[in-house]
Every structure is written in C-alpha cells, then in structure tokens.
Amino acid sequence: MNSLRIIALVFWMGMGAAFAQQVTPTSQSNLLLTDKGVKDYTRLLAEKPTSVQEIAQIKQKIDAELGQPIQVPMPKDAGGGYTHEQHKANQLSIFYGGILYQLTDDSKYAEHAKNLLFAYAKIYRTLPLHPEKKEQTPGKLFWQSLNEAVWLVYSIQGFDAIKPYLSEEDRRYLKADLFQPYVDFLSVDGAETFNKIHNHGTWAVAAVGMAGYSLEDENWVKMALYGTAKDQSGGFIKQLDQLFSPDGYYSEGPYYQRYALLPFVVFAQAVAINNPELKIFDYRDSILIKAIYAAIDLTYGGFFFPINDALKEKNLKTSEMVFGVDIAYSITQDPRLLSFAKYQGNFAPIDAGFEVAQALSEGKEKPFAFQSKRFRDGEKGDQGGLAIFRAESEKSNSALVYKYTAQGMGHGHYDKLTWLFYDNGEEVIRDYGAARFLNIEAKYGGHYLPENNSWAKQSIAHNTVVVDEKSHFNGKYSIAENAFPTELSFDISNPDFQWASAVLKEVYPGVAFKRTMFQIQDPAFEYPLILDLFEVQSEEQHQYDLPLHFNGQIIYLNTPLAANKSQLLPLGKSNGYEHLWNLAQGKAHEKLSQFTWLLKDRFYTWSTKTSASDELIMVELGANDPDFNLRSERALILRSQGRGNHYFLSALETHGSFDSKNELTVNASNQIQSLELIEKGGKKYIEITTKDAGSRSYPVE
C-alpha cells in the first residue's frame, strides 16, 4: 500500500466520528470557490475590471433568466433533444447562480439557484429510468448515467456556493430529497459504472466525492476515493493508478484525456482544499499535472489528435481544458500555461481562475514551445506509446504523429502502428476519428453511428497495413485489449534525425508488424522529410494493403490508373472495405510509385518503393452509406501479394508553394528519384537518390 493511501486511511479513521456527528451540512463553502477567490475577484473588479469580463458575461446570462419560469421538464429526449439540453442548461444555471452569489453577495442569484435545486428535489427521488436510456449505463434526468454525473459535478458547486443563504432546514431537505437519492443512484444503483476504471467512472466518483465534501458526508467521500466497498477496489485513487501512464498519457487517447480531465482536476482540487495533507497533486509523481501538460502536447494548432473515438472539433478552448489549465497554473505557477489561458479567452470562475486572471492582467504569460516527445502508454509505461516529432521554425510548423499505443479500451480502434501528419496548419495525412454527430438528436439520436463500427474502427480506415482485407485482431476487442506494441527505440537527441520504432508480435495469426518512422531535416529537402519503413513478418501467402488517407487535391501520379467511368463498385464486402468506392486502379510503377497532391498552398509527394506486380487503387469513402453518414474522403491504397516476409518503404516530401492569387507556382515537383533498403556491414540503411543533391543514406537501426 503506498504512502498516500496509508495517510488517507489514517485520516479517515481519525475523522470518522467528527463526520458522523454532523447530520446537516454547515454554511461553509468547501469546494472550488473559497473566500480567497472572492477576495481576488473583488480586487480585480476594482483595479482591473476588464480582466474579469468573464463574470460580467455570466452575470448577463443569469440576469436574463431571473423572473422567468423555472423549466425542469420531465426527461424525454436523448442527447441533443429539448429536455436533455434544458437539464444541461439548468446545471450551469445552478453553478453560475451560486458563483454570482458568492462574488456579489446578491441574494437574487442564490434564490435562482435554490429554486432550481428545489424543483429537482421534488421530482428526482421518484423519477424512473430515462425513456431513451442506454442499455449499459441508463440515467434518470439523462439517457446515460455519464450525463447524470456531469450534472451533479456542476450543480453541487452551485449548492456549495449558496449554503450561507440556505436555512438549516433547506440544506437538510436538499440532502434528503435530492442529493442522497442522486448519490445512491450513481454509487449504489450504478455501482458497476462507479467502480469502473473508465471516464464514466471518473465523472461518477468526482460527483459523489464533491457532494460528500460539500454535504460533509464521510461515507460519500470514502466511496469516491476508494470505491463503493471502500477497500481500494475502485474509486479515484485506483483511476489515477491505472488510467494514466507514467508520462500522463490517458489510456483512451487525447480526445478522452481532454474529457476526463475536468472531473479529475476539479475533484482533486476539492481534495486539496479539504484534505491538503493528502497532497493529491503530488500523487504518482504529480500524475495529474503531467496529464494536463500531456493534453496540451497532444494537439496541433490547438486541436486534439483524432485518435480512437474522437471528434475533430474539440480543442484547447473546451471547458475541461479551461479548468485544467487554470488549476495547473495555480499549482505550478508556470507562465507558459498562461499563454494557453490567453488563447482560451476565458477562465474558470474558481479560485484558480481568478489567479490566472490576475497573472494575465500583469502580462506574466510566456510562450509554450512545442517539442518532439514520446508518451508511453499503460499503467507502467510498457504498453507501447505515441511519438510526436515536431519541426518548429519560421518556415516549418509540422508534426508527425506515430501511434503505437495499446487498444484504448472500448473507444479504441484497430489501427496498430499507424500515423498522421500535420503541416502548414492542416491535417495532411489524416485519421477519420469517430463517426458520430454528438448531441444532434436528428442524426441517429446523437449516438455513435453504425458506421463507427463498420468503418471508423476498422483498420482500412487508418494509415497502417491491412492483411487479407481483415482488420487487426479480426476486429475482436477481447484480443486487441490484451495485445500491445513494444517500443524498440525512440530517439530525439538529434533534431535533424529523429525516429521511433515499435513491433507487435502477432496482429494476425502468424503475422507480426514492425514499423520505424523518421523525421529528417536535410538541406537536400525544402522541408522536413518523413521516412517510413513498415516490415511484415510472415511465412504464408497474403494480400497486403497499405492505405494513405491524404487530404488535398490530386496533382500527379507517375503511373496510369484506369478510372471506373461507367459504374462504381465497393472495394470489398466487409471490414470497412464495403464503404470504399473503387474509383480507379492500375499497376504500380515498376520501381518507385509517386503521388503528389496540393493542400492549401503547399505540395506533398508520397514516394513508395513498388514493383510491377503491385497495384494502386484510388478509393473514395461513401459506399453502402444509405443515410449519408460518412464524409467523402479519398485514399490511395498500395496493394501487394506475396509469401514470406514483406516490407513497405515510403517517404513523404513537403515542397513548393502555390499562390492562387498571383498564379505563381514554385517547386511543384519533388526531389526523390529512388528509395532502396540496403545492408552495409550487417546494418540496414535507407538510401535515397535525389534530383539535385545526389544520394544519401540513413541508418534504420
């Protein structure tokens, strides 16, 4: 048992009697906005009112609601529907009403929050499960218990803020008729989710734990920290142990790292305020602070890398990241974090947020320099990882993302050893992300679309090798969750020559993968060069498909393809192939196939070593999609047949420019003329011949 757990257990044993004697919560605020934050706001309002415009905007929103009838409809709609959105709006109104009462001492805001809480207290105990309930995790106010937990995370902060306004009878009533049944629903009725090591579990424990602190209920706090059995079999501490790698990488990927951060950091902040002796932000070598920095690093242009089930619209301006950045700054005092707070344009109305507002008003922010780095995956950091190679200069702003992580639980995709590439502010080599229209009820009720399973999760939807038109691990979660790549090497010591290599012993029966990716800055090339060596180990005959999901307008292909002009047919029947229209296909070049496209004002050329027996297939997404759920995106597939070991050797060049206004084109042609994998002295090298700078070779290992 680690030292934090020992300290926590001793603390609870000593404090149990004191908690047990209190049947009614006191009027003292116990959560994220305390007297310190109120004093900071008051001073800023007097001295630098423009620095706290966020509060003026919140006040304007709540003032517009005052005097209007309270709207607490009976739950009916799924995500995005009227009742769903109204209950979400109410959770913020309770939260903001409480915040404004604390900051202004104006009772009208407390009364507004109180009326909303009382309206929920009248109905919550007798509410049945939501009529549109999700089978695995049903809610009552919402279609899933996840949203139920989110509601309480916000609303309990509003309640905590208005406790001085409430009478003892009011506080007792709200606990008995609203919060007690609410907590019971999340933790007792929903024990499976509550104890789950998953973002749903994180939201649930944060909600119950924060309610426990505000209502001074020891049992709720202990359940939140250690699981419903209070034996460390679940709960917040176990989630901190298992959901993050030692580098702060979250097991479900960047998109869910962003989403899970809010309950992690707000509950941790509540723990820090109420039990500072637990030093929660120091736990696991400051794992939560690492996670906040990791979330920032897992972005390009502010947007999260769309790995696993991810929606591409999410960026660093989301509320989760606002809370995360503010709380991280309050702990670290790192002025680089302020640059993100400035980019976000607002702050969380809590102690940490007012500290950030003060620092920004004093101009303390410093730029954050993104650098190449690798995040290990897995609780112990031994389940692969994610390598990010960045080239930051006046001319270049690129990022190569090499994904060799573990599965990522239920939100993971079957895309072992895949990659993405960003440049010039654009996603050049892309990943589809998730097939979903979140909270748009008219589109499949806001659920993940059926195509999320039939397309987005399938291997052909990613930039990795697919064997015999079957997805990795045959698309079986139970197999994929127990298989993860092993990192062989990672080196960023030389900014001109950086690489990562990983292997996975059995992706298909008898088939192993090894991929090594390089970022090279060489005067022979205008921009950083990406090299890719994908080695397949097998003794059997197989078909190998390597898709390139490019973004941009096709310019040139050095081998002719026969277009299917009169009839389009799907490329295959299953595993994602059924969604690809076969636009054109033909023989690959006998030595080196080269494909150039234009994105915005820059050219990109993919060169790949091929033989005359290989095929190239141009495909477009949209087949077998009667409801038009999928985006129309194109990919070029390199198809090879062979027995025994096989390898793909490719390079991605960035070059030239196109000025459409002045009709000026520069360097539309690439440099590479040949690619070869050779051996010298028992070592492998990639040898490249260029048009203008002759030959050069780069070591593989």
TrEMBL record:
Residues 1-20 form the signal peptide. InterPro entries: Alginate_lyase_dom (IPR008397), Chondroitin_lyas (IPR008929), Hepar_II_III_C (IPR012480). Transmembrane segments: none annotated. Keywords: Lyase, Periplasm, Signal. Residues 376-644 form the Heparinase II/III-like C-terminal domain. The keyword Signal applies. Residues 98-285 form the Alginate lyase domain. The keyword Protein biosynthesis does not apply. Its main location: periplasm. It comes from the Bacteria. Pfam families: Alginate_lyase, Hepar_II_III_C. One of its GO terms (molecular function) is lyase activity. It is found in: Periplasm. This is Alginate lyase family protein. It comes from Algoriphagus oliviformis.
